[in-house]
Amino acid sequence: MYANQQQPGANEDAAVHEPRDLGDYGQAKVAAERTSELVLGERLLIARPGLITGPKDPTDRFSYWVSRLALAGAAQVLTPAVQGRYVQVIDVRDVAAWIIDAGQRELQGVVNVVGTPRPLADVLDTAAQVAGFTGELVAAEDQWLQEHQVSYWSGERSLPLWLPREDFGFLQRGNQRYKSAAGPERDMTDLLADILADERARALDHERRAGLDRGARTGTAGRACPPGLGVLEVFALADRLDQLQVSVQDQRIGGESIVQRPYLIGQADQRGRDGSSRGDGLNR
């Protein structure tokens, strides 16, 4: 609903979209606020939550990561390039508790009900610890992901929490007003642990509304990929071979042929658990 997504720390006074198209989600929210103001006037409390998550989250926009890492175990997991990217989430239980409390206290005004912005790298590392993940986080640049039809944010073939660089303020909204109003914020480790427990109860490989499948896929040569590898893993391995300037006729992983020819695919870099760059391939 905010007109400018490029200003980290922007508070509730930031400009919003003019509600000209009610088919647009953000503009519809602005219209709803203004209609409510006409009815309730100064008595109105407007809560503006950011990305809401928690156990039983049906969107997979945040829960994808800890469950994906738990499912991967010791394998590689694809992430977007994390440098300069942030995550800002709020537990649904905290949102509900605060709204009830705020109503009882008859609070008024506009409040961004959002958590503290955290570097994406830190959130992924915490998720890895909670999930018992011992593999490698492999970072791909935006151009590479786009070239391989990976979508931003949510939906089929997406990487949740990945946003265009020009929208870097979207997950860094100011939350001082929420904190000043006794807004709760659950510990990130506890939040991820609760989410993972729920994900395990529902099966880690359940059908998702966001993210990338880890199931077996058909490789670039029309053959089945080794268990745990998908199409992007195969592209990534081929990409690394290309960087080494190796002409590959028949590379094998786990006894299965996956690459039949050299590939010219975008550059890739790999970020390990310690944040270092290793440059040895990409996976999905």
Could you explain how this protein is built, in words?
The structure is a single chain. The chain is of the alpha/beta class and 284 residues long. It is globular. The strands form seven sheets. A two-stranded parallel sheet has the order 1-6. Strands 2-5 form a two-stranded parallel sheet. A two-stranded parallel sheet has the order 3-8. Helix content is 32%, strand content 15%.
Order of helices and strands: HEEHEEEHEEHEHEEEHHEHEE
- Report the uncertain regions: 215-231, 233-284
Basic shape? globular
Largest sheet: 2 strands, parallel
Helix content: 25-40%
Helix/strand/pairing category:
alpha/beta
| Residue share in β-strands | 15-25%
Strand order of the largest sheet: 1-6
Please count the beta strands (DSSP E, at least 2 residues each): 14
Mean pLDDT across the residues is: 79
Distance between the termini: 32 Å
Question: Number of helix segments?
Answer: 8
Radius of gyration: 21 Å
Q: Strands, helices and their partners?
A:
Blueprint: H1 25-40, E1 45-49, E2 51-53, H2 63-72, E3 77-80, E4 86-87, E5 89-91, H3 92-104, E6 109-113, E7 118-119, H4 120-131, E8 137-140, H5 142-147, E9 151-152, E10 155-156, E11 158-159, H6 176-180, H7 188-202, E12 210-211, H8 231-243, E13 251-253, E14 256-259
Provide a brief overview of the structure.
The protein is an alpha/beta fold and 284 residues long. The chain has 8 helices and 14 strands. Strand 13 (251-253) and strand 14 form a beta hairpin.
